[in-house]
Design brief:
Helix content: 10-25%
Number of strands: 11
Order of helices and strands: EEHEEEEEHEEHEE
Radius of gyration: 17 Å
Structural class: mainly beta
Strand content: 25-35%
Number of domains: 2
Number of helices: 3
Largest sheet: 6 strands, antiparallel
Length: 182
Protein backbone atom coordinates (compact mmCIF):
# COMPACT_ATOMS: atom_id res chain seq x y z
CA UNK A 1 0.00 0.00 0.00
CA UNK A 2 1.54 3.25 -1.11
CA UNK A 3 1.25 6.27 1.09
CA UNK A 4 -2.03 8.04 0.30
CA UNK A 5 -1.46 11.59 -0.97
CA UNK A 6 -2.80 14.44 1.14
CA UNK A 7 -5.57 16.33 -0.68
CA UNK A 8 -3.88 19.72 -0.28
CA UNK A 9 -0.21 20.66 -0.62
CA UNK A 10 1.83 21.06 2.56
CA UNK A 11 2.70 24.57 3.67
CA UNK A 12 6.43 24.96 2.88
CA UNK A 13 6.84 27.32 5.87
CA UNK A 14 5.12 24.98 8.34
CA UNK A 15 4.84 21.39 7.05
CA UNK A 16 2.47 20.44 9.89
CA UNK A 17 -0.31 22.13 7.94
CA UNK A 18 -1.69 22.21 4.41
CA UNK A 19 -2.44 25.14 2.12
CA UNK A 20 -5.57 25.72 0.04
CA UNK A 21 -3.71 24.47 -3.07
CA UNK A 22 -4.78 21.03 -4.31
CA UNK A 23 -2.11 18.33 -4.62
CA UNK A 24 -1.64 17.52 -8.33
CA UNK A 25 -3.56 14.34 -9.16
CA UNK A 26 -6.19 14.89 -6.43
CA UNK A 27 -8.45 17.25 -8.40
CA UNK A 28 -11.01 14.46 -8.78
CA UNK A 29 -12.00 14.88 -5.08
CA UNK A 30 -13.14 18.46 -5.65
CA UNK A 31 -14.91 17.32 -8.83
CA UNK A 32 -16.99 14.95 -6.66
CA UNK A 33 -15.74 11.78 -8.38
CA UNK A 34 -14.89 9.77 -5.26
CA UNK A 35 -16.52 8.36 -2.17
CA UNK A 36 -15.57 9.87 1.19
CA UNK A 37 -14.88 7.36 4.00
CA UNK A 38 -13.90 7.61 7.63
CA UNK A 39 -10.17 7.52 8.38
CA UNK A 40 -9.57 5.48 11.51
CA UNK A 41 -6.56 6.27 13.71
CA UNK A 42 -4.47 3.13 14.20
CA UNK A 43 -1.89 1.24 12.18
CA UNK A 44 -2.26 -0.40 8.78
CA UNK A 45 -2.09 -4.18 8.37
CA UNK A 46 -2.75 -6.31 5.30
CA UNK A 47 -4.07 -9.79 4.63
CA UNK A 48 -2.39 -10.89 1.39
CA UNK A 49 -4.06 -13.14 -1.18
CA UNK A 50 -1.86 -16.02 0.05
CA UNK A 51 -3.29 -15.68 3.60
CA UNK A 52 -0.16 -14.07 5.08
CA UNK A 53 -0.54 -11.01 7.33
CA UNK A 54 1.75 -7.96 7.00
CA UNK A 55 2.17 -4.73 8.99
CA UNK A 56 2.92 -1.34 7.44
CA UNK A 57 6.34 -0.06 8.52
CA UNK A 58 8.01 3.28 7.96
CA UNK A 59 11.81 3.40 7.88
CA UNK A 60 13.46 6.74 8.58
CA UNK A 61 16.50 7.99 6.63
CA UNK A 62 19.75 6.34 7.71
CA UNK A 63 17.94 3.42 9.40
CA UNK A 64 18.00 -0.17 8.16
CA UNK A 65 14.72 -1.90 7.38
CA UNK A 66 13.82 -5.10 9.25
CA UNK A 67 14.66 -8.49 7.75
CA UNK A 68 12.16 -9.55 5.09
CA UNK A 69 10.78 -6.00 4.72
CA UNK A 70 9.23 -5.16 1.35
CA UNK A 71 9.62 -1.52 0.27
CA UNK A 72 6.58 0.01 -1.42
CA UNK A 73 7.22 3.75 -1.45
CA UNK A 74 9.99 6.31 -0.91
CA UNK A 75 9.31 9.97 -0.06
CA UNK A 76 11.97 12.02 -1.83
CA UNK A 77 11.26 15.08 0.35
CA UNK A 78 11.56 13.45 3.78
CA UNK A 79 13.70 10.45 2.82
CA UNK A 80 11.28 8.10 4.61
CA UNK A 81 10.58 4.70 3.10
CA UNK A 82 7.32 2.82 3.56
CA UNK A 83 6.74 -0.89 3.17
CA UNK A 84 5.57 -4.12 4.77
CA UNK A 85 7.04 -6.38 7.44
CA UNK A 86 5.59 -9.70 8.52
CA UNK A 87 3.08 -9.32 11.33
CA UNK A 88 5.14 -11.72 13.47
CA UNK A 89 8.03 -9.24 13.65
CA UNK A 90 5.84 -6.14 14.12
CA UNK A 91 5.62 -4.42 17.50
CA UNK A 92 1.84 -4.65 17.01
CA UNK A 93 1.74 -8.46 16.81
CA UNK A 94 0.10 -8.80 20.26
CA UNK A 95 -2.67 -6.33 19.44
CA UNK A 96 -3.17 -8.01 16.06
CA UNK A 97 -3.36 -11.44 17.71
CA UNK A 98 -6.13 -10.20 20.03
CA UNK A 99 -7.99 -8.63 17.08
CA UNK A 100 -7.87 -11.97 15.26
CA UNK A 101 -10.53 -13.35 17.63
CA UNK A 102 -12.95 -12.15 14.95
CA UNK A 103 -10.93 -13.18 11.90
CA UNK A 104 -11.51 -11.13 8.73
CA UNK A 105 -11.43 -13.49 5.79
CA UNK A 106 -11.26 -11.02 2.92
CA UNK A 107 -7.78 -10.14 1.61
CA UNK A 108 -7.03 -6.43 1.73
CA UNK A 109 -5.91 -3.71 4.09
CA UNK A 110 -7.25 -3.01 7.56
CA UNK A 111 -6.70 -0.48 10.31
CA UNK A 112 -5.62 -2.13 13.56
CA UNK A 113 -7.03 -0.08 16.45
CA UNK A 114 -7.27 -0.60 20.18
CA UNK A 115 -5.80 -0.06 23.64
CA UNK A 116 -2.17 -0.80 22.69
CA UNK A 117 -2.07 1.01 19.34
CA UNK A 118 -0.71 4.58 19.45
CA UNK A 119 -2.50 5.54 22.65
CA UNK A 120 -5.91 4.29 21.46
CA UNK A 121 -7.25 7.56 19.99
CA UNK A 122 -10.41 5.71 18.87
CA UNK A 123 -11.17 4.69 22.47
CA UNK A 124 -11.80 0.99 21.80
CA UNK A 125 -11.82 -1.40 24.78
CA UNK A 126 -10.58 -4.32 22.64
CA UNK A 127 -8.27 -4.52 19.64
CA UNK A 128 -10.05 -4.73 16.31
CA UNK A 129 -9.40 -4.79 12.58
CA UNK A 130 -11.45 -2.36 10.49
CA UNK A 131 -11.50 -2.89 6.73
CA UNK A 132 -10.33 0.22 4.86
CA UNK A 133 -12.85 2.09 2.75
CA UNK A 134 -15.93 0.46 4.28
CA UNK A 135 -17.30 3.42 6.26
CA UNK A 136 -18.71 5.86 3.68
CA UNK A 137 -19.86 9.28 4.80
CA UNK A 138 -22.02 11.82 2.96
CA UNK A 139 -19.93 14.55 1.42
CA UNK A 140 -22.23 17.50 2.03
CA UNK A 141 -19.49 20.07 2.63
CA UNK A 142 -16.28 21.05 0.82
CA UNK A 143 -13.41 18.73 1.91
CA UNK A 144 -11.70 20.99 4.48
CA UNK A 145 -14.99 21.94 6.15
CA UNK A 146 -16.12 18.29 6.12
CA UNK A 147 -12.96 17.22 7.95
CA UNK A 148 -13.21 20.11 10.44
CA UNK A 149 -16.86 19.28 11.24
CA UNK A 150 -16.27 15.55 11.57
CA UNK A 151 -13.20 15.93 13.76
CA UNK A 152 -14.87 18.51 16.01
CA UNK A 153 -18.27 16.82 16.30
CA UNK A 154 -17.27 13.15 16.18
CA UNK A 155 -13.59 13.10 17.05
CA UNK A 156 -12.53 11.35 13.82
CA UNK A 157 -8.96 11.50 12.57
CA UNK A 158 -9.98 12.52 9.06
CA UNK A 159 -11.36 11.41 5.71
CA UNK A 160 -10.05 9.21 2.87
CA UNK A 161 -11.59 9.62 -0.58
CA UNK A 162 -11.71 6.58 -2.87
CA UNK A 163 -11.96 6.99 -6.65
CA UNK A 164 -13.60 4.17 -8.64
CA UNK A 165 -10.28 3.59 -10.47
CA UNK A 166 -8.39 2.95 -7.21
CA UNK A 167 -6.86 6.37 -6.57
CA UNK A 168 -7.13 7.72 -3.05
CA UNK A 169 -6.58 11.03 -1.25
CA UNK A 170 -6.71 11.86 2.45
CA UNK A 171 -7.10 14.82 4.74
CA UNK A 172 -6.51 14.64 8.49
CA UNK A 173 -7.96 17.11 10.96
CA UNK A 174 -4.46 17.88 12.25
CA UNK A 175 -3.41 18.91 8.71
CA UNK A 176 -5.75 21.90 8.86
CA UNK A 177 -4.41 25.04 10.51
CA UNK A 178 -6.46 26.28 13.43
CA UNK A 179 -7.71 29.86 13.43
CA UNK A 180 -4.83 30.84 15.74
CA UNK A 181 -2.26 29.30 13.33
CA UNK A 182 -3.46 31.25 10.29
Amino acid sequence: MRKIPTLFKRDPDDRRYVTDEITPGCEWVLAGEGVATRKYDGTCVMLAENGKWWARREVKPGKNPPTGWIEVDHDEVTGKRTGWETIEQSPFRGAWSEAMAVHPKEPGTYELCGPKVYGNPEGFTLHRLIRHGRTPIPQILPPAELVREISRDMGWEGVVWHHPDGRMAKLKARDLPTESAR
